C-alpha cells in the first residue's frame, strides 16, 4: 500500500524498531506541519493509507473529498480530530486502538515531573541561578501533602503509585462510574466535587476529551482550590472551560498551573497569556513524546495497516465501511 505518515516533526519514526513492520509498503514520511488543506490534499493525493501522529492534523470532510485514493486512516487513541461520518461517506475505514487496558507511562512520568517542578520551583530556581541570583524562594515538600486525581483511568492510577512512593495522600474524583470503580478498589474518593478541589494541594486532570467532557472544569472548581495549590493538566486543554484557568490564576486560585496541553497547538506565540504567566510552568505537549512510547504506539498503527492489507482489519471504528 502507499502509506503516508503525517507530522513526524523530528523524523523519529524511521529510527524506531517498529518501522520495520512497514516493510513491503511504499512509505512517505512528512516531517513538517501543514494547515492548508489544498496543499495537504496535493501531497496526500497518492495515499491509500494515512497515518496520523495523534491529533496534530485534523481530518475534515473537505480534506477527505480531495483524497480519491484513500482507503484507510490508521492511528491510536481517541479521534476528536477525525470526521468519522465523513470517513464513512467516502468509504474510508478508520482504525484506532483505544488501548484501554495499557497506561501511558510516558504521560504519567511527565505529569509527575511537572508536579515536582511546580512544588520545588525548579524552572524558576534554574533561571535564578543562571542569572547570578542564587536561590529565588522556598519550595514545598510533597511528602504528607494531598494529591487530587480527577479521572479514574490508567494514567491517573500510575500517577497515584508515584504519589504513594513519595508519601503523598491520594484523593480521587471522577465520573459517577469512575467513582464507583475507585471505591470498589478501595481508593479514597472525596465526599463531593467541591470538597475534592478544596482538599488538595495538587490537582491533576486525567480524563479523555469527548463531547461529554468538554469544559468539565470551570471557574467554580478553581475558586474552591487553595491559594497555594497547583493545577496540572497533561490530558487535553478542552477539558477546561475557555478562559477559566487564566481567570483563576489572576484571582489567585490555584496559585500555580503546570500544563502540557493548550487550546491551540502547536502554540508558538511567546506572548500567549497562559504560557507567559509567571505562575505557569508549561511544556509543548510532550506527554507521550518519548522514543519508547512512540515505538509502542506506532507498532499498533502499523499492525492495523498490515491487517487491512491482509483483508482482516482490526480496531475498526466505522466498521460499516468494511465490505470484506
Instruction: Determine the CATH topology of the largest domain.
Output: Rossmann fold
Rg, Cα atoms, Å: 21 Å
Residue ranges: pLDDT <50 for 5 or more in a row?
A: none
Sum up the overall morphology in one term: globular
Biggest sheet architecture:
6 strands, parallel
Beta-strand segment tally: 11
CATH architecture classification name of the largest domain: 3-Layer(aba) Sandwich
Number of continuous helical runs: 11
Number of domains: 2
Order of helices and strands, N to C?
EEHEHEHEHHEHEHHEHEHEEH
CATH superfamily grouping of the largest domain: NAD(P)-binding Rossmann-like Domain
Biggest sheet strand order reads 7-6-8-9-10-11
CATH class membership of the largest domain = Alpha Beta
Amino acid at each position: 500500500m502507499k502509506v503516508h505518515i503525517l507530522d513526524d516533526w523530528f523524523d523519529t519514526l524511521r529510527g524506531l524498531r517498529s518501522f520495520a513492520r512497514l516493510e513491503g509498503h511504499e512509505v512517505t514520511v512528512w516531517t513538517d506541519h501543514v494547515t492548508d488543506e489544498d496543499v495537504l490534499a496535493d501531497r496526500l493525493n497518492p495515499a491509500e493509507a494515512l497515518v496520523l501522529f495523534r491529533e496534530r492534523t485534523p481530518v475534515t470532510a473537505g480534506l477527505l473529498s480531495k483524497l480519491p485514493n484513500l482507503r484507510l486512516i490508521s492511528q491510536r487513541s481517541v479521534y476528536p480530530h477525525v470526521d468519522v461520518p465523513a470517513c464513512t461517506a467516502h468509504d474510508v475505514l478508520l482504525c484506532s486502538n483505544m488501548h484501554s487496558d495499557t497506561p501511558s507511562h510516558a504521560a504519567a512520568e511527565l505529569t509527575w515531573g511537572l508536579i515536582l517542578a511546580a512544588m520545588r520551583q525548579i524552572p524558576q530556581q534554574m533561571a535564578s541561578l543562571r542569572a547570578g541570583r542564587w536561590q529565588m524562594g522556598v519550595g514545598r515538600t510533597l511528602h504528607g501533602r494531598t494529591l487530587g486525581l480527577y479521572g479514574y483511568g490508567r494514567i491517573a492510577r500510575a500517577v497515584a503509585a508515584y504519589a504513594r512512593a513519595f508519601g503523598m495522600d491520594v484523593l480521587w474524583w471522577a465520573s459517577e462510574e469512575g467513582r464507583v470503580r475507585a471505591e470498589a478498589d478501595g481508593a479514597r474518593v472525596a465526599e463531593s466535587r467541591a470538597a475534592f478541589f478544596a482538599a488538595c494541594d495538587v490537582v491533576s486532570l486525567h480524563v479523555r476529551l469527548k463531547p461529554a467532557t468538554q469544559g468539565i472544569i470551570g471557574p467554580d472548581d478553581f475558586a474552591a482550590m487553595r491559594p497555594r495549590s497547583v493545577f496540572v493538566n497533561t490530558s487535553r486543554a478542552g477539558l477546561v472551560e475557555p478562559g477559566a484557568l487564566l481567570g483563576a490564576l489572576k484571582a489567585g486560585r490555584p496559585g500555580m498551573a503546570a500544563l502540557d496541553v493548550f487550546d491551540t497547538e502547536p502554540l508558538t506565540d511567546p506572548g500567549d497569556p497562559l504560557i507567559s504567566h509567571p505562575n505557569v510552568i508549561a511544556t509543548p505537549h510532550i506527554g507521550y513524546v518519548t522514543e519508547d512510547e512512540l515505538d509502542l504506539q506506532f507498532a499498533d498503527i502499523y499492525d492495523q495497516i498490515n491487517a487491512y492489507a491482509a483483508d482482516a482489519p482490526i480496531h475498526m471504528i466505522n466498521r460499516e465501511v468494511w465490505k470484506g
